[in-house]
Amino acid sequence: MTLLGAGAATWPLVARAQKKKLMQLRSIGFIDGSRIPRRFTCDGEDLSPPLAWSGAPAATRSFVLLCDDPDAPGGTWHHWAAYDIPANQTELVENAGQGGFSQGFKQAINDFQKPGYGGPCPPRRHGLHHYYFRLLALSVERLMLHDKPSCSEVEQEARKHIVAEATVVGTYHR
Questions:
Q1: Domain interval for residue 124
Q2: Could you tell me the CATH number of the domain that includes residue 135?
Q3: Which of 16, 76, 141, 170 is deepest in the core (most CB within 10 A)?
Q4: How many whole angstroms separate alpha carbon 42 and alpha carbon 170?
């Protein structure tokens, strides 16, 4: 009887949770979990892939987009951090990560020591690498950072204000 009572009491909560819209991130450049096309890598044109999102919480005041490779030989390699993306924005077009190119947001210095996007470029014969594109919805409009922060500094500051997160993963090997 207690088990039935508990289940009956939690049913409305489960129903509401299923109706709740979760933030989602996707790319028309590649399918989640699949190989990233050459054009978005150092072996191609090194363009940042197009990314779009939906379902951001009402409390969102800005976004941060990160791209990292945790399979790099020396530890996680930071490929991109775009930050102070306006809350009403729902996409980054292809090549939005070009260093110095601005669409109303800022870009950090990546581990290639350049601003903007640096595409997948794993060592040859190092095996399959996974590239995590993560969108962070934040409760603040602007991050308090110095003029040329690293991708790690952007993520560290953003984590203090996160309200939601969505991820899409691509793979690449050489």
A1: 29-172
A2: 3.90.280.10
A3: 170
A4: 15
Q: Is there a domain that residue 5 lies in?
A: no
DSSP output for 37-98: PGGGSTTTT-PPPPEEEE---TT--EEEEEEEETTSTTS-EEEEEEEEEETT--EE-TTTTS
Sequence-separated (6 or more) residues with CB below 8 Å from residue 69: 76, 77, 79, 120, 122, 129, 130, 131, 132
| Structure confidence at residue 102 (pLDDT) | 61
State the 10-residue block means of pLDDT for the chain, 174 residues long: 42 41 93 98 98 97 98 97 97 88 86 97 96 98 96 98 98 97
